[in-house]
Specification:
The protein is an alpha/beta fold. It has a single domain (4-160), classed as P-loop containing nucleotide triphosphate hydrolases (Rossmann fold, 3-Layer(aba) Sandwich), CATH 3.40.50.300. Helices cover 31% and strands 22% of the residues. It has 5 helices and 6 strands; from the N terminus they run βαββαβαβαβα. The protein has a 6-stranded mixed beta sheet with strand order 2-3-1-4-5-6, with helices on both faces. β5, α4 (126-131) and β6 (142-143) form a beta-alpha-beta unit. It binds guanosine-5'-diphosphate and magnesium ion. Guanosine-5'-diphosphate binds at residues 9, 11-17, 59, 119-120, 122, 145-148.
Length: 163
């Protein structure tokens, strides 16, 4: 079975950019189920010889309980339930936000294998960008640039080691 890697995090951190990079390969197929997967997108990816299924979520706003934003959170929760591993994306340029902390608590409580990914770090010192995110308690921050591809293969190699 291909492991299912679910990308979660607050809006605008670069989840879709990473998803697009991971599923760009020639044999990537979109396997969305209409109606069931609004704001949740599936794509096949491969790093080296190792295939995986990537799931993009529309965004995670657990602080808000009504309307469209609530629906997005529901989608993210459904995606977490089907995850073999969670990639928790945060923004290395904006830095740590209160919302990241709320999401971190939720993800840790899910009990799923969790990887903390600090995005938008092109041209920045990895250790410096990652430092403030240790306090999320989600393990060693993995620093990448989804837009430029820096660190992405190393990240996925590491995530797939467990499977
Ligand atoms: P999502 O809401 O989490 O899916 O975020 P998107 O993938 O839509 O990206 C939000 C914004 O961040 C867009 O303007 C992207 O171009 C930008 N972005 C995504 N990844 C990177 C990155 O690695 N570096 C920089 N500088 N910007 C990025
Ligand atoms: Mg998106």
């Amino acid at each position: 079975m291909k492991p299912t890697l679910v990308l979660v995090g607050r809006p605008n951190v670069g989840k879709s950019t990473l998803f697009n990079r991971l599923t760009r390969s020639r044999d990537a197929l979109v396997a969305d189920i209409p109606g069931l997967t609004r704001d949740r997108h599936y794509g096949h990816g491969r790093i080296g010889h190792r295939p995986f299924l990537a799931v993009d979520t529309g965004g995670f706003e657990p602080l808000v309980k009504d309307g469209i934003v609530h629906e997005m959170a529901r989608q993210a929760e459904a995606a977490i339930a089907e995850a073999d591993a969670l990639l928790f994306i945060v923004d290395g340029r904006t830095g740590l936000t209160p919302q990241d902390k709320v999401i971190a608590d939720l993800l840790r409580r899910s009990g799923r294998p969790l990887h903390l990914v600090v995005n938008k770090a092109e041209g920045m010192d990895r250790a410096v960008v990652g430092a403030e995110f240790h306090e999320l308690g989600c393990g060693e921050p993995r620093v990448i640039s989804a837009a430029h591809g820096d660190g992405v293969n190393e990240l996925i190699d590491l995530v797939l080691e467990a499977f």
